[in-house]
DNA sequence: TGCGCTACCCGTAAAATTACGGGTGCAATA
DNA sequence: TATTGCACCCGTAATTTTACGGGTAGCGCA
């Protein structure tokens, strides 16, 4: 019988233990490893070649999105199931674009989680209803350009346009244009709202 | 032998399972209940009179701080140990003010968590070094007045001073004063930074 | 009773932001 | 090759925010 080989990637030891405890009750599940950050997860995935990687999005060293991309590149047979505590449309969209096969929230019931693992292991995709609803009611922002992300990050730190111009070595007028483009793209009426949206949707590092 | 009666309050089933699995390996620990939100935790604490409540801060229905306050009021013999994934100085300070006996991060190692439980069960306080460091490097904001909290919340939503004046039924000039007081109190140079600080420090609901 | 705190009110002026208009050069790509 | 998108540049004007100054009234607490 072919058991599903599972790698757990989460920085919280209690979460890894909980997942391991849950999966140990399923005869067709085999937890082959646990990784406490993204970097280690990538190495462990190469070493252990699991069928499914259960991936937290917020981890130190390397976040779940980058780790997902790296794992999909290095061992394409490993499916990635994103397991997150705070889901944002943009985060999920990025994870799926990076090659994740599914996404589910940590608040999900055990049965749903087990079903999700089986589904992605079978090569199908699985996105929980809760997350689907989120993607519908709050569609992801069309992605920001590199410059826009830099400027948005600076906005959240309270830099004025002049500050940003000096920091980036461009004119104030250009910064104003970047800011206006950001406001339009993320649907903010002003820079304070832009900061609110950026942090709530995790468009920048918190 | 008096085992330590423990109630687990966390909205994530996997975390509750992980904690239960960990504590089941300790002969002096007895997990007597699990609650998936703050409201239920308060009821369960009354019903089960545990020695220690392991309390997540971010939960639906009622957050961990309110739940801590309610539990300390209704059954003072129950010690509360805060277990959080994203610690902020303000959140921890509020939890301790609400009567929590300790605080530790979810990224803590199992041994530290077990030690923390034993310590608060024995009537001592326990704040992990990581959280102590956070409180030192980033001391909590002197608490905002009710009006200031309202205004700060509106700032994060991108309302202009005029909008807020209409919403609260006061003059723009008064709103300006509230905003200035907020900026000074939380150490922000302008409203965009105020929004950034408010959301990063969880001074308002996310 | 006096003190401090909060919630309000008012005016003026400088600074910053936002909203319009107009451009060029460059790189990728269809 | 033509188009598109991005990063830049410039000007003007309205609006908003921020920084000063001043004030009153109510409330709890020492």
Span from first to last CA of chain A? Answer: 45 Å
| Largest interface (CB < 8 Å) | A-B, 37 and 37 residues
Considering DSSP H and I runs of 4 or more, what fraction of the residues of chain A is helical? 40-55%
The parts of chain A where pLDDT drops under 50 for at least 5 residues are none
Q: Average pLDDT across residues of chain A? A: 94
Give the gist of this structure:
The structure is a homodimer of 206-residue chains. By secondary structure, chain A is an alpha/beta fold.
Walk me through what this model shows.
Two copies of one chain form a homodimer. Chain A has helices at residues 13-23, 38-48, 64-74, 89-97, 110-121, 129-137, 146-156, 161-168, 172-186, 191-200, and strands at residues 4-9, 29-35, 52-55, 79-84, 102-105, 126-127. Chain A is of the alpha/beta class and 206 residues long. The model of chain A has no long low-confidence stretch (mean pLDDT 94). The first copy, chain A, folds into two domains: 4-137, 3-Layer(aba) Sandwich (Rossmann fold); 146-200, Winged helix-like DNA-binding domain superfamily/Winged helix DNA-binding domain (Arc Repressor Mutant, subunit A). In chain A, strand 3 (52-55), helix 3 and strand 4 form a beta-alpha-beta unit. The first copy, chain A, is elongated. The first copy, chain A, has a six-stranded parallel β-sheet with strand order 2-1-3-4-5-6, with helices on both faces. In chain A, helix 9 (172-186) packs across helix 10 (191-200). Helices cover 52% and strands 14% of the residues of chain A. The A-B interface holds A 11-22, 83, 85, 106-110, 113, 155-158, 160, 188-196, 199-200, 206 and B 11-22, 83, 85, 106-110, 113, 155-158, 160, 188-196, 199-200, 206. Chain A binds a DNA duplex (30 and 30 nucleotides) through residues 145-147, 160-162, 170-171, 173-174, 176-181, 183, 190-191.
């Amino acid at each position: 019988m072919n058991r599903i080989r599972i790698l757990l990637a989460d920085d919280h030891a209690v979460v890894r233990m909980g997942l391991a405890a849950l999966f140990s009750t399923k005869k067709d599940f085999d937890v082959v490893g646990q990784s406490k950050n993204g970097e280690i997860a990538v190495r462990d995935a190469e070493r252990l070649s699991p069928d499914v990687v259960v991936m937290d999005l917020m981890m130190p060293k390397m976040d779940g999105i980058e780790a997902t991309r790296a794992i999909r590149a290095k061992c394409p047979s490993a499916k990635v199931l994103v397991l997150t505590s705070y889901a944002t449309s943009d985060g999920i969209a990025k994870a799926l674009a990076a090659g994740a096969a599914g996404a589910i929230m940590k608040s999900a019931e055990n049965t749903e989680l087990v079903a999700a693992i089986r589904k992605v292991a079978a090569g199908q995709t699985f996105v929980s209803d809760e997350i689907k609803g989120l993607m519908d009611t709050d569609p992801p922002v069309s992605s920001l350009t590199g410059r826009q992300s830099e400027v948005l990050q600076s906005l959240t730190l309270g830099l004025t346009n002049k500050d940003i111009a000096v920091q980036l070595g461009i004119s104030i007028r250009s910064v104003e244009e970047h800011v206006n483009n950001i406001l339009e793209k993320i649907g903010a009426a002003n820079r304070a709202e832009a900061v609110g949206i950026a942090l709530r949707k995790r468009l920048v590092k918190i």
